[in-house]
Amino acid sequence: MNYLQEMANINALFRWRAKLDRIILFSEETSAFLIPAGVQNTIVIDDKIEGPVCGIIPINGPALQVSTTGLKWNLDGDKCEFGGIVSSSNQVMPGEIVTIKSSNELIWTTEIKSKAVEGLRESLNGSSIRIKKQNSI
Question: What is the pTM of this model?
Answer without folding.
Answer: 0.78
